[in-house]
Amino acid sequence: MNGLTDDRKFADDSVWCGATITAGWLLLLFVGAYLITPASILPLVMTDLGITEATAAALVSMPQVAATVIGIPVGIYLDRVETRATVPVAAAVLLIGSTGDWLAASGGTVSLLIASRLLAGVGMFVLWVTCINVAASTFPPARRATATSVIISGYPAGYALGQLSAPRVAAVVGWPRVFPVFGIAVLVMSLAFYVAVGRVPRCHPSTDPITLLDFKRVIRNRNVWAILVVTILGYSLYMVFNSWMPTYITRRFGVSLAESGTFVALFPAVGILARPIGGWLSDTVLDQRRRPVFAASFVGATVLAVAMFYSTTIAVLIAILVLAGVFVQLQIGLMYQSIQEFVEPQAAGTAVSLASVAGWLGSFVAPVVAGELVATTGIYAVLFVFAVGLGLAGGLTVWQMAESGKSTTPT
C-alpha cells in the first residue's frame, strides 16, 4: 500500500512540475510580448508621438534600463526569500506600468510613457529571475539545465507573439491599448504559476549565504567579466535584429507593418528550439565545453549579417534572418550556466543576476545606438554594419576567454 501511495504521490508531483514549467513558460511568453510591443509598431509610435527613431527605440529598451539598475540588489534579495510570493506582486507592477503606457500613449505624453515602461521593467526583471530560480529548485540537479532552458524559451516565443500579434491588435483597438492587453495576460498567468509552484516540493541548495568577501571575489574574477562582455554583445545582436528588422523590411521592400512583423516573428521564435539545443550541444556533444558554442554563435551571426546586407529579395532576407536567429540564440541560456562555473556555489545566484543585468544592458544600449546610427546616416543598411561589429567583438572575446566546465577552478 505504501508503494502505491508513493507512486501516486510521484505521479501527482510530476503533473504539478509539468504545470509549473508550463505556467512559467506562458508567463514569460506574455512578458516577452509586452516588452517587444513598441518595436513591432514602431512606425505608428513615431508618427503619432512625433518622435525620432532613437527615441522610439529607447521606448523598446526602457524595461531593460530598469532591470540594469535594480538587477543586482534584487537578485541578491530574491536569493534569500521565498520567491513564490513575489510573482503576483511583480505581475501587478507590470500591469500598472502597462496601464500607464496606455494612458501616456493616448495622451501623447512621451515622458510619462518612458516612466511607465521603466516601472513595468521592475516587475519584468523579478518575474524573469523568479522563473529561473523556480525551474532550478523544482527539479533535481540532473534535470535542472533542461527545465531552465525550456522555461527560458518562453521569452523568445513572447517576442514572436508580440511581433506577430501587436500590429493586428493595434488595428482593432488602437496601438496604445496593446500594452495593457499583454499586461493583463501576465497577471493571469502569474496567478496560475503561483498556484502550480505551491503544489510541488522544492529543492534548495545547501550552501551558505554569499558574504561580502564572496561578492568581491566574483567582481574581481576576470572570467566572470569575460562572460559578462559575451552576454552584453550576444543580447545586443539579438535586440538589433529584433527591434529594427520590421522597420527595415517595411522601408526596403514596401510591405505592410503587419506583414513585416509576421516575417520577423520567426527570428525570436526559433529560440524556442535554439536555446535548449545550445545547452544540449555543450553538455552532450562537446563534453561540457562552452566556448565552441559561443564562438559558433558569434561567427555564424556575423557571416549571416553580411549576407542579409547583400540580399535583394525579401524571401532570401527572411530565410537568412531565421538562420541568424538560430545562431544568435544558441548561446543564450548557456551564458547563465557558464558564469556559475567560474564562481563558488554560494555565489551562483549573484552570478546569474550579474549575467541578467549584462543582458538587459546590451538589450537597452544596442537598439538605441542603432537608432542613432540610422538617424545620423539616414541609411537603414547601417544596421548590418553595426551587427557585424558586434559579432566580431564577440568572437574576439570568446577567443580570449577561458573555458568553463567541471574541471575549471574559480579564479
UniProtKB/TrEMBL annotation:
One of its GO terms (cellular component) is membrane. GO terms for molecular function: transmembrane transporter activity. It is a multi-pass membrane protein. It is found in: Membrane. It comes from the Archaea. The chain crosses the membrane at residues 15-36, 56-78, 85-104, 110-135, 147-166, 178-197, 224-241, 261-281, 293-310, 348-366, 378-399. Its main location: membrane. The keyword Transmembrane helix applies. This is MFS transporter. The lineage of its organism: Archaea, Methanobacteriati, Methanobacteriota, Stenosarchaea group, Halobacteria.
